[in-house]
Amino acid sequence: MLPDSSNISLHSKEARLGHGPFDSWVRAEFDWTPRTAYRFIQVVEHFQSCDKLSQLAPSALYLLAAPSTPEAVRLEAIERADVSNATFGITKTPRC
Question: Is 57 a domain residue?
Answer without folding.
Answer: yes
